[in-house]
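Continuing the batch. This is chain 6 of the set; chains 1 through 5 are on the previous pages. Same settings as before, nothing changed between runs. Recording input and output for traceability.
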Amino acid sequence: MSSLRPNQALVAEEILLDGRLALFHQRERWLAVADLHFGYELSQRAAGRLVPMWGMASITERLLQLVDEYRPSRLIILGDLVHDSAAAVEARELLKQVRKFCEPIVVAGNHDRQLRGQIELFQSWETEDFHFHHGHCATERSDRIQIIGHHHPAGTISDGAGLRLKCPAFVQQSRCWIMPAFSPWASGTKWTQDEPSRVWLCSPERILRLPASEPAEI
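Output for chain 6:
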């Protein structure tokens, strides 16, 4: 890609981070997202909480927009496709729509247990250089870079005058990259760094890389 938009960043050779919370490999043609928690509002309503019914529509629109734009050969969903089984039927319909564009690969997350037998789930997925898994349990060490979800990282920036803005974050360590949550319901969680990291704050309009020396609240 010769030029990047403000909501795109080249985070490694041929690997593009999109501020709409996706990672795209330009040569291998895979697109990765994590933690959709599709159907969260159905789960909440089943529990008696009258949350608004807009999350699934938002996820569907944004995901199909990304797939239509990048035209990947595979969409890798890094776990927690659903929040629970309340949206099993709706999740199958979402994957059906994705198949019009590409092959969906659904990696099992801790929220996806009740989908077994209803949707094909993979424990992990590998390419020559990357090992995709949800990240909710330990995995054998690999010579590949791990790309995971589960943690819902977020970062906060301040203007020094009291204004604070919290954004989903893509965290890039040397051998492990942590995806932001795709779900609009995910507020993001504090990330405790155990090694030097590059942190990219994501929004649909812009990506901001935090300075490495800045003690970011992530």
